[in-house]
Amino acid sequence: MGRARLDRRPPQTSPAPGGFRKVLLLVERSTKEAVWDCRMCGQCILHSTGLSCPMRCPKSLRNGPCGGVLQDGSCEVVPEMRCVWVAAWEGSRKLPLWRHHMEHVERPTDWRLQETSSWENLLTRRDHHVPDGWVPAKERP
Amino acid sequence: MTEPRSELHRLLLSGEFVVTAELETTDSADPASVTTLAEALRGKVDAVNCTDNSSSHTHIAPMAAAHLLLDSGVEPVMQFACRDRNRLALQADLLGAAALGVRNVLLMTGDDVTAGDHPEAKPLFDIDSVHLLRIARIMRDEGRYLSGRPLTQPPSFLIGAVENPFAPPLEFRPMRLGKKVEAGAEFFQTQICFNLEKMRLFMARCGELGLLDHVWVLAGVFIPRSGRATRYLRDQVPGIDVPDWVIQRMDVGPPEAQQRTGIEIALELVDAVRQIPGISGVHLMTIHNEDAILTLVEEAGLLPRPSGVRQPVA
């Protein structure tokens, strides 16, 4: 904690974390880093990716594996690591409620949310932000 | 009836078995480095891919190569990788390419920088291939940028993607193709196919998922030049499944014999993939072996091309 970083989130989210929010961030970071090697992207989709954090992928892929996965299922960039998406596929088969999420198209990453609490962003719906163009024409106001 | 967006699109719509090839990468500021290659391929294939810093090695910009191909009367398929550009630059280049007359784009994630000659570089991967496919569709079909800001004149191009039926997780690969179709892909070029068994399983599963009614799939076929080059492909290029039988056959005899064996293997693969339901064409690849493409299309009975020889613009 205490790492100084530029907060580039939209204005309504800019106040520095204090009190409850600080605790939330601390608890989320310490538990999720320990259990899932979480990278604190602030827009968690772990349940949709078989509990394999997609931000551990060296290419930060959130929509499935790249074409470079080695024949033994290891990562092309870090061969000593198992491909995050091979693990995601296997993990997702064990989650009956969310397994079909593997077929969902995930929205582009909002890089402003890096290092912020995804729990806070979920509560404040900040992780629901999508660029206007991404919203299908028929759903646009 | 759908209005064709490109010559490649017209051929795919007409049910023609199409042939595309990859342009050899060049490292020259002389336009002739591209136009000479283009002239050799003109009329022999239907469209030519301009790669985007392939294998993470810097080469001539695909935008420039595509422009030179158009000048030479060859239809380009311009590749876009997400490694070197963020969403602003990718959209700017999609629009710019369309303005230059590029009518086929192929959108992919791209290799990691560690695979190339600048491993110290910062890899971008701001968005992934699925996002980029969707963004191209938003620009083309809704006339907007991802931000929602309107375009004055939307681009018109056929949107392509890649898939690798040969890399793990194999069961997920057809679904990933499905995600790309949902995002906006209209045709696919596959990774290099040597393993026909995997290709058949992949295509059968895509068929079961109902995906093949919506897209065209071009099988990637590599023409090996030597046993050594084939080993390089197996050991140094991630994601390619090179079975032992390929290496064993390629290792026999002197270099000239190996070159001939390579063409024969590719011919067998072209014949085999043509029989797989849902395969609409082949995408030919070589490494420093351009003449082999001409020999292959000739001997595989793929000539003359229906697109014929077009006249250069310049």
Q: What's the SSE blueprint?
A:
The complex is a heterodimer of chains A (141) and B (314).
Chain A: H1 20-36, H2 84-93, H3 118-123
Chain B: H1 7-13, E1 18-22, H2 32-41, E2 47-50, H3 62-71, E3 76-81, H4 87-100, E4 104-108, H5 129-142, E5 158-163, H6 173-183, E6 187-192, H7 196-208, E7 216-222, H8 227-236, H9 244-250, H10 255-274, E8 279-285, H11 290-299
Parallel strand pairs in B: 1-2, 1-8, 2-3, 3-4, 4-5, 5-6, 6-7, 7-8
Précis, in short:
Chain A is built from three helices and no strands.
Commentary on this structure:
Chain A is an all-alpha fold and 141 residues long. Helices cover 23% and strands 0% of the residues of chain A. Chain A has three helices and no strands. Chain B has helices spanning 7-13, 32-41, 62-71, 87-100, 129-142, 173-183, 196-208, 227-236, 244-250, 255-274, 290-299, and strands spanning 18-22, 47-50, 76-81, 104-108, 158-163, 187-192, 216-222, 279-285. In chain B, helix 5 (129-142) runs parallel beside helix 6 and helix 8 (227-236) packs antiparallel against helix 9 (244-250). Chain A binds chain B through residues 58-73, 76-77, 83, 85-86, 89-90, 102-109, 111, 131-135, 137, and chain B through 82-83, 87, 108-109, 111-112, 114-115, 123, 125-131, 134-135, 138, 142, 144-149, 162-164, 167-169, 171-172, 175-176, 178-179, 182-183, 191, 238-239, 241.
